[in-house]
Specification:
Blueprint lengths: L3 H7 L7 H25 L11 H18 L3 E5 L6 E6 L8 E7 L19 E3 L2 E3 L7 H18 L7 E7 L9 H7 L1 H4 L3 E4 L11 E6 L1 E10 L5 E2 L10 H10 L22 H9 L4 H8 L12 H6 L3 E9 L9 E2 L2 E10 L5 H15 L5 E6 L6 E2 L5 H14 L4 E5 L5 H8 L3 E3 L15 E3 H21 L5
Parallel strand pairs: 3-6, 3-7, 7-17, 8-16
Antiparallel strand pairs: 1-2, 2-6, 4-5, 5-18, 8-15, 9-13, 9-14, 10-12, 11-13
Bound molecules: zinc ion (ZN).
Zinc ion binds next to loops.
C-alpha cells in the first residue's frame, strides 16, 4: 500500500478524460501497423560491435530515417560519424514559447546468435503470450519506436498539425559499443540539438505493476594502477623479505580503499556529493523491494555496502569504489619462489550528482602515491569518465513525465534511479539541459541476454505516455528565453 503522503507527492488518479480515450482509440486503430513496422526494423541485425554488421547498422539508420519522414517529421537526417551513423529528426511546434525536447535512444543492438540460448532466431521477431521476442525489442528499438506512434496519437488527440513542443530525436548507432563518437557528435551539433530538456528512452521501470520514472544515473571513472618493484622477478630466498614486494603492496592498497564502515577511504572522494533528502529516502523505502530476490538475481550470498544506507540507496544514490581485477606474480601451476617485479589492480568508481570525475581522479592519484612504500614505483591510467546526472523531484519537466505516465498506466508513478552510467550525461553536460528518463522496459526483458523481449502492453503504454507528455510539457513549462 502506498501512503497518503506518497500519493500526494506523485498526484495521480485521473479520471479517464477525453484526451486519454482519444489517444487509446488512435493507438488501437494503428497498433497492428505499428507492430509490423517494428518487426521489420528488428529484422535488421544492427550489431554495432561486429564489423561485418556495419552495413546492417547503416541500413537500420536509413530505415529509421525513412520511417520518421513517414511519421511526419519535416527534418530527418542521417548523421555520419567515424563509426556508425546516428539519426536526427526535428519537428518544430510553431509556438516560439513552447519548450524544445530532445529524445535520445539508440538503433544498434547487442550481438545475438541462436546458439547463445535463444529459443527462436533473435532477428526474426515472434510474439508469444503478448510478448515480442527479438534482439533490440526492449533495448532499444522498441523504446525508440514507441515515439513514432506516440507523436501521431498526440496529434490525432489534440487536432494539432504539429507537436505541442518542438520535438527533436537523436538516435545513435554505437551505444552498445560504448558510444565512442557520441560526445564529439553532440559537441559538433550542439546548436542543432539545443533543447530545454532531454528525454532518454533507453531505460526501464521497476516492474509490470509498478510504473516508475528514473531521476538520475551514476557517473563512472575507471583506472588501472600498475605497481613496479624489482626490474625483474627475483629469487625469494636470496632477496625476499629484504626488498618491497609489489604484490603485497597492491594488496595493501586495495585493503586501504575502504574503511571499516565500507566507506571509500580516498580523501576528498565524497567532496560535493549531493546527499539524499529524507523525502527521497522515504520514496525509495516505499518501493516493493524484495532483498532476498535481489540477492538471487545478484547471485550473491549476502548484501554488503556503506553503513547507514539501504541496498537501493547504495546502488542508486551513493558513490562506490570497486575492485574489478587484481593480479601480479606467478599464476601458473605449482610454485615459483619469486618476488614478482610487478602487480596491478583495476578500479572503477561510480559517481553521484555533485561529484566531479576530474576531482576524483586527482584524489585517487594522490591517495595511491601516499599509500605506496619506497621502492615501489607506480603508473596510473584513467580511461574516459562519464558524469553523473540527476533531476530534482520537483523539476516541472519531471512532473510532466510523471503525470503523462500516470495517465497512461492508470497507476501511481514512483521514482527510481539508475546505478549504471550512460552517454545521456554527455547531453546534459554539452547542452546544459536536464535529463529525464522515459522507459517502459522491465527487468525480465533480458537486455543483452538470450530471448530479449518487450511486453506489448507496456510498449503501448509507452506510446500513450509519449502522446500525453508533449501536451503536458507545453501546458506546464515554457521555453526559457
Ligand atoms: Zn540501450
Amino acid at each position: 500500500m502506498m501512503s497518503a503522503r506518497a500519493d500526494r507527492l506523485v498526484s495521480m488518479s485521473h479520471p479517464v478524460d477525453s484526451a486519454v480515450s482519444a489517444v487509446r482509440t488512435y493507438i488501437e486503430q494503428h497498433r497492428a501497423a505499428f507492430l509490423d513496422d517494428l518487426a521489420e526494423w528488428l529484422r535488421i541485425p544492427s550489431v554495432s560491435a561486429q564489423p561485418d554488421h556495419a552495413p546492417d547498422v547503416r541500413r537500420s539508420a536509413d530505415w529509421l530515417a525513412a520511417k520518421l519522414r513517414e511519421t511526419g517529421f519535416p527534418t530527418v537526417e542521417v548523421w555520419p560519424t567515424p563509426g556508425a551513423p546516428a539519426v536526427y529528426a526535428e519537428w518544430p511546434s510553431g509556438d516560439p514559447q513552447a519548450p524544445t525536447v530532445l529524445v535520445y535512444g539508440h538503433h544498434d543492438v547487442q550481438p545475438a546468435a541462436r546458439e547463445d540460448g535463444w529459443d527462436t532466431d533473435p532477428f526474426e521477431p515472434v510474439v508469444r503470450e503478448n510478448r515480442l521476442y527479438a534482439r533490440g525489442a526492449a533495448d532499444d528499438k522498441g523504446q525508440v519506436f514507441f515515439h513514432t506512434l506516440g507523436v501521431r496519437a498526440h496529434l490525432a488527440a489534440t487536432g494539432r498539425p504539429a507537436p505541442a513542443v518542438t520535438l527533436k530525436l537523436l538516435i545513435e548507432g554505437e551505444e552498445e559499443s560504448g558510444s565512442p563518437n557520441f560526445r564529439d557528435l553532440v559537441e559538433r551539433q550542439a546548436e542543432r540539438l539545443a533543447a530545454d530538456a532531454v528525454i532518454v528512452s533507453d531505460t526501464g521501470m521497476w516492474s509490470e505493476d509498478t510504473p516508475t520514472v528514473c531521476t538520475g544515473m551514476r557517473g563512472l571513472a575507471e583506472c588501472e594502477i600498475r605497481l613496479l618493484g624489482p626490474d625483474q622477478d627475483i629469487h625469494s630466498g636470496s632477496f625476499g623479505g629484504a626488498v618491497p614486494n609489489p604484490a603485497t603492496a597492491v594488496a595493501r592498497l586495495v585493503a586501504a580503499l575502504h574503511d571499516e564502515h565500507a566507506r571509500v577511504a580516498v580523501p576528498g572522494f565524497y567532496d560535493g556529493v549531493v546527499e539524499l533528502t529524507d523525502r527521497e529516502r522515504e520514496l525509495f523505502a516505499e518501493l516493493p523491494f524484495d532483498e532476498e530476490e535481489w540477492l538471487r538475481t545478484a547471485r550473491s550470498h549476502a548484501a554488503h555496502g556503506e553503513a547507514g544506507h539501504s541496498t537501493l540507496e547504495r546502488i542508486w544514490a551513493r558513490p562506490t569504489a570497486e575492485v574489478n581485477g587484481i593480479g601480479g606474480g606467478y599464476q601458473g601451476p605449482g610454485i615459483k619462489t619469486i618476488v614478482p617485479s610487478s602487480a596491478f589492480v583495476k578500479l572503477s568508481f561510480r559517481l553521484v550528482a555533485g561529484q566531479d570525475p576530474e576531482h576524483v581522479e586527482k584524489a585517487v592519484r594522490a591517495w595511491a602515491a601516499d599509500q605506496l612504500p619506497a621502492g615501489i614505483r607506480h603508473e596510473i591510467t584513467f580511461g574516459p569518465a562519464t558524469r553523473p546526472c540527476l533531476t530534482p523531484l520537483d523539476h516541472p519537466a519531471l512532473q510532466s513525465v510523471v503525470r503523462a505516465m500516470g495517465r497512461a498506466f492508470d497507476a501511481p508513478v514512483r521514482f527510481t534511479r539508475e546505478g549504471g552510467s550512460g552517454p545521456a550525461a554527455d547531453l546534459q553536460e554539452v547542452l546544459g539541459a536536464p535529463v529525464l528518463f522515459l522507459g517502459i522496459s522491465v527487468p525480465s526483458d533480458g537486455w543483452h541476454a538470450p530471448n530479449e523481449k518487450v511486453e506489448l502492453d507496456l510498449l503501448l503504454r509507452g506510446v500513450e505516455t509519449a502522446a500525453h507528455l508533449w501536451s503536458d510539457l507545453a501546458d506546464n513549462w515554457r521555453h526559457a528565453p
